Amino acid sequence: MNIYDLIVKRIKEAQKADSDGPVTNVSTSAMLTAEITLISSVLVALIMLRLVNNVLMMVAVLVVLFTAVLAMPIMPQLKREMNDSLYAMTFYMVLALVIVITLFYWGNFNV
Amino acid sequence: MNPLIALMIIVPIICALFLNLLHKKDRTIKAIAIVMAITLPLLPLLANYGLHYFGGYEPLYQNPALSKGLPSLITGTALNTFHPAITYSFQDAQKLFIFILGLVAFLAIIVSLFETRRPSGVYGFMMFMGVAAVSALILTDDIFNFYVFFEIAALATVGVVLVSQVKGNYETALKYMILGSIASPILLLGIALLLGVTGNVNITDIILSLKSGAVNPQNPVILMACGMIFFGWLYGSGLPPFHTIKSAIYSKALPHGAALLQAFSVFTFIALGIIILRIFSYLPLSQLVIIGVSLLAMIMGITMAILQTDLKRMIGFLAVGELGYIGLGLGLGTALGITAGLFQAVNEVVITAFLFIGFGTIYYQSGESDIRKLGGFMVKNPKVALLVLLSGFAMAGVPPLNAFQSKLMLIQASVQAGLPELGVIMILLSIVTFMTFMKAFHAVYMRPQPSDLEIKNDFIPKATILALSILLLVCLLLGLFPQMATNYLQGISTSLAGGVP
Predict the structure, then answer these.
(1) How many domains does the structure of chain B reveal?
(2) CB-CB neighbors (< 8 A) of B245 in chain A
(3) Which of B65, B230, B259, B461 could potentially form a cystine with B353 if both were Cys, beta carbons 3.0 to 4.6 Å apart?
């Protein structure tokens, strides 16, 4: 089984567990597209770390690439996480508040 | 003083109140709503540039007659330059923004009146009140006044969803209110901290206090205030982590309501984004965080959009993703980047309204928005299908439509700023946006009609087709003659960029 078939198989498994509807070609290819888009966008964004340090950029890209390959498929998990549950939304809201305040308060002191 | 500036807020508020009072008087509501909706895009075109002072007067140094006889304790200090009134500023950029808001509101209101059998006074109230609130957000130079209208806009958003009678609307509106009840007070607290340190709520005066050294710009309270106002910005515009609830809000409104709600979000985004840039651009992290959050919004919004099976939710996520493009322009901090970002904002408002109203015809005809249950609409409405196809082309940035120009400018700005990676991501995500749209378009228009699909309305109102045609015309005009918009944006961009080209 090649890597494409392996990814599609895991996407189908994740979707079956997630949804009551049938797993179609369209939904699988959409999931695969989202997966590739997510990983490639994050990797390209990480290249901007070159402005801080070239070695840091290379390490970050390799670590994220390696982690992404191991964790594939990421999108079904991400979709499950970004549901309409009030608890999940409140959790991420509080998390974002903590990150933003930390960044602005301590980040500006130490930059 | 220019009375037409005040009328941009007062007219929609008065209209909203009348519509609410006249609830159930269908014909009167329709007539008043049409007449008043026409005035929304006209007022900014007729108004002259200038300032308007609510509940006070201009700074003393501008009016020697007022300062005559006052002690030097007032005239000889910073008090002489402070703005004692709530100041509304109407310049080039505000003219363009309020015109586009008025145009989208006019079209959404007209479509709602003709797609609904019995026009609802309460629905009209919410739409007009939201327009008034967002116009005030764009015009005001007073950060506390901004907060008041920010809350009114949030309540109008909830109201539009509550009145929409879409399955699950109450639950989603309640969730939005609960999240807002946490995020909005954080924004207010940020404003209060800023007031506590600078002694001012007028934005120009706050900037003067920071720049003149009257207040230490590195004061920890100001840094905390910046974080809190930034958090309020995430909530108001629907950036992560609020992208899930924002897209849910769009999907639980009627399509014409969603067309207007996304305009509220985009204009709230740029109004508060401009305030953050004006006050806090001296902080090294502010632009970096704006770029980070915008990238996150683009990636999360667009990758989530392609997974959706509900048309309205899909457009909702796409709308959130497109906000990221605007944020990137603002975050780059150059004049070209900010112009491109603001131009993208104008284009996004028009295109997303185009998509919501276009795909809204499907919901109007079938009462269904799940693409797995739809099909065969190309045969029924080939003209509308063509218009919807063009709206998708516009969103993806296909020339000669408007988003092509703004996205090209954004890519040029990112390359010029030394961040070509952002340009690569923008191109990549535009391709995925197009793919998402084509997935929905194929399912709705090009597949055979499912046997169990029930068509409730055979004909689409002419008002809807007219609205779609007007939006297409705007997309074409801004695509062929981008300077029609960018000329209005260059002044504010140059000022925000602080001389960086």
Answers:
(1) 1
(2) 84, 89
(3) B259
